């Protein structure tokens, strides 16, 4: 993870707990710039591919591990959130079409 949201350890912990996936915090907070540098390095032939370049260029400063108990506490709410989109999909598409006609 990178960017402004990483300044809040609590927010990052919530993300890790909800997703049940460890979050790696990078030393470089400006992810778009780092991503551009990685692509440029591959394009310049310094690395054979993006995976290799990222492995060499991205530095992890901290890792936030999910809390299994918190994940279970969030699970019901995450499932409800995921189930919401199919139920409002038609409304979202109608709104998008309405705005596009303006």
In short:
The chain is mainly alpha-helical.
Strand line-up of the largest beta sheet? 1-2
The geometry reads as: flat
What percent of residues are in strands?
5-15%
Radius of gyration: 19 Å
Bin the helical content: 55-70%
Q: Write the element-wise H/E pattern from the N-terminal end onward.
A: HEHHEH
Number of strands: 2
Structural class of the secondary structure composition?
Answer: mainly alpha
The biggest beta sheet is recorded as:
2 strands, antiparallel
Q: What's the level 1 CATH class?
A: Alpha Beta
Description of the structure:
The protein is mainly alpha-helical and 102 residues long. The chain has one domain (4-101): ATPase, nucleotide binding domain (Nucleotidyltransferase, domain 5, 2-Layer Sandwich). The chain is 65% helix and 9% strand. It has four helices and two strands, in the order αβααβα. The protein has helices at 9-19, 31-43, 50-57, 68-101; strands at residues 23-26, 60-64. The chain has a two-stranded antiparallel sheet. Helix 1 (9-19) crosses helix 4 and helix 2 crosses helix 3 (50-57). The two termini are 37 Å apart.
């Amino acid at each position: 993870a990178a960017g402004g949201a990483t300044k809040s350890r609590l927010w990052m912990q919530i993300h890790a707990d909800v997703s049940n996936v460890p979050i790696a915090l990078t030393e470089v907070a400006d992810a778009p710039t780092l991503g551009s540098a990685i692509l440029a390095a591959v394009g310049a032939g310094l690395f054979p591919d993006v995976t290799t370049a990222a492995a060499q260029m991205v530095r992890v400063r901290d890792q936030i591990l999910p809390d299994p108990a918190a994940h279970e506490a969030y699970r019901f709410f995450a499932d409800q959130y995921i189930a919401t989109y199919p139920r409002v999909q038609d409304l979202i598409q109608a709104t998008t079409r309405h705005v596009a006609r303006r």
